[in-house]
Automatic annotation (TrEMBL), chains A, B:
InterPro entries: Rossmann-like_a/b/a_fold, tRNA(Met)_cyd_acetate_ligase. Keywords: ATP-binding, Cytoplasm, Ligase, Nucleotide-binding, RNA-binding, tRNA processing, tRNA-binding. Pfam families: HIGH_NTase1. This is tRNA(Met) cytidine acetate ligase. ATP binds at residues 7-20, 101, 164, 189. It comes from the Bacteria. It is an enzyme of class 6 (ligase).
Length: 407, 407
């Protein structure tokens, strides 16, 4: 059986995602789709709207066959670490292909970009340092360095000043660096201009705009109906009904504020990514802010992107020390969240060859390596009120991998 | 001018307290009453119902002339440390008398108890160790050791198995150990059997029972009217009106729970008083408890008194390390919370001779030594909702000592 791997957040799973899953299979001729999905917290440093279990369910209903959790340490990190973790999991599960979405849908420019930058590495790093010193944020400095450098590369390359291209580029880089055997491919993203019988402008919306709709109008889930597969919409609805909450940062604001107001600057400096004196800004802003939104606005500067600050806040909330995040290169386990019947067949055929230990249940043996994921889940649960909170709290222990065979 | 010192919590100030202030002055012939009062958190490891500023106001309206804050490190500690801090402040402000409440109202038995125990110190410590080893809580073991020992002492002594006598005894001990010059005296406590024109059974109730009334019936403050001086009642009422909250542990439960669920056992062991593996019990109970009350009930064992656990919870909430609480012997500053016009005269006459630095305003210079008190205030404020929370948060900086001259 041949597998294609995809890297996803599904926050939540929508029609655009369903299209990607379908295309990934069609274009590669793979039998199964393996997805590595962020857990309860995401790459932009924010909580997922519903738990990883419900999002795994959406993924399976939407055409995925195996869902593995991207551990917290990768899932919430900047693009290069995120990509390293994801690729190492897909490689460990023997994916023959990696498929990711991009604007142009052509893999060659991504490969050329990688080789071009490899060739001009020293020059690139010098430029990056130069722009960083001038006070630009890391993404901005990287983008400026790239802009200057791209003139020196002959071939068609991708524009790394566009955030959408950065992850694709990092996947290629991780594949090369890890000597992974999978072949990378890319699918042109659906957007509002794209016309298709099932997926047209009126049914495609980004996850961001879906969440915006949900959170702007007092959790008006109904409004998002047409942008999601029915299964996804139902899962979102029943999560809200069951746990009484859809997760977003404001729910965690009292905890973040409490943490900031009970920590000294020195204690905050022990937290991953807290540096350059931002700890003082964070503490001061926490005294006067009345919401997460107003807090973020008070902290924001030219030097720090919104995402970077949000990620720092997440590390403070989860209490992730610099020490615990050192040496992150590749994943160390495969946490299985769910499978379709076809996924199950793949698993049974191949798990003997998997290059990392498979975890389908938390036990004394694996508890230590899962520690950070388990902690993240505990804190994620605190957004709900009792008694639903207690149900969410034990989910990592009580929930077996989801088995989906309704297709 | 002669001063009598009293040690108080005023949680809240009630008719029994007003009687004590009056008697302390009358019996010692002092011109002013200096009180050293716990800040926002109290000796039983709980938040004060209203902030230290409002309680200082109650104290001044109730007859006190100077109110100093007993720093957090003393105010929330066990009886011996609590007493050491309080006595050192009263001594530093040149009190000629200490007056405290007791059942029998006679100082001699307290002095005899101190001398008796001094004489039999080794024996007492052996007995204490013996009972502790048998698994009794510290207070219980101390009480059993005392019971056995008291037979060996000829004179009339106080019954240290009664919690009410323990503090009085510790005051005497602190006076002797610190070589303090003040003379200790004691006043018989008012209780329901005591008859008096102004203070009779129907107007005397303990602070505990007053808080019970307030918190049991959806914050029914009206019910407590007859047990408090009008000034006290009004202050309580206007605090609630202004900040929308009367403080109690349940308000801090989400923060405590979050702290427990984001800490490892090793991190909890760094907290003052966390020992003997109680960290594991605390973490486990925090996963299943839906309120502070149910959490406490889940943690409680024969070995730990309710107060001891509550105090541990407070140290975890405020994030007080073992290191920061080592070497607590005597107070290092006099934080002035308020004064009457007579108190002001006393201050002006005597402050030159005060044995500790007087702080009436937080400044860069004293910020470091006040750090723990300031942190406690920040977290205390989080019980209120925004925007009142922000007002409470800055109170330690914006509020000058209260000046009361309505008498």
């Amino acid at each position: 059986m041949k597998a294609v791997g995809i890297v996803v957040e599904y926050n939540p799973f929508h029609n655009g995602h369903a299209y990607q899953v379908e295309q990934a299979k069609k274009e590669t001729g793979a039998d199964v789709v393996i997805c590595v999905m962020s857990g309860n917290f995401l790459q932009r440093g924010e909580p997922a709207i519903v738990s990883k279990w419900t999002r795994a369910e959406m993924a399976l209903a939407g055409g995925c066959d195996l869902v593995f959790e991207l551990p917290f340490s990768f899932a919430t990190s900047q693009a290069d670490i995120f990509a390293k973790g994801a690729i190492s999991i897909l490689e460990a599960t023997l994916c023959q292909y990696l498929s990711f979405g991009s604007e142009q849908g052509n893999i060659q420019p991504f490969l050329s970009t990688y080789h071009g930058l490899q060739k001009h590495e020293i020059e690139y790093n010098q430029l990056l340092k130069h722009y960083s010193k001038e006070g630009y944020s890391y993404p901005k400095a990287a983008s400026l360095a790239f802009q200057q450098l791209q003139l020196a590369i002959d071939e068609e390359i991708v524009d790394l000043t566009k955030p959408n291209n950065i992850l694709g580029f990092q996947y290629i880089k991780a594949i090369k660096q890890q000597n992974a055997k999978m072949e990378p491919t890319t699918i042109a993203r659906k957007n509002a201009e794209f016309h298709d019988e099932d997926f047209n402008a009126s049914t495609i919306a980004s996850a961001t705009s879906i969440r915006k709709k949900i959170f702007s109008q007092e959790q008006n889930i109904e409004e998002t109906f047409k942008y999601m597969p029915r299964t996804s919409y139902d899962a979102l609805h029943s999560y809200y009904k069951k746990y009484g909450v859809l997760h977003h940062w404001e729910r965690y604001w009292p905890m973040l504020q409490y943490r900031l107001l009970s920590s000294s600057p020195a204690q905050l400096r022990e937290i991953y990514e807290v540096e350059e004196g931002i700890e003082f800004r964070l503490i001061e802003a926490s005294k006067t802010s009345t919401s997460f939104q107003s807090f973020m606005e008070a902290v924001k500067t030219k030097r720090y992107t919104w995402t970077r600050i949000q990620r720092i806040c997440l590390y403070i909330l989860i209490h992730v020390s610099k020490q615990s995040m050192s040496h992150i290169e590749e994943a160390e386990y495969l946490r299985l969240l769910g499978m379709s019947s076809k996924g199950r067949v793949y698993l049974n055929q191949h798990k003997g060859e998997f290059k990392l230990p498979l975890i389908s249940k938390v036990s004394e043996k694996n508890r230590e390596s899962l520690a950070l994921d388990l902690k993240a889940t505990r804190i994620y649960a605190l957004a709900a009120n009792s008694p639903q909170q207690q149900q969410l709290l034990k989910l990592d222990f009580s929930q077996p991998p989801i088995i989906y065979d309704k297709r």
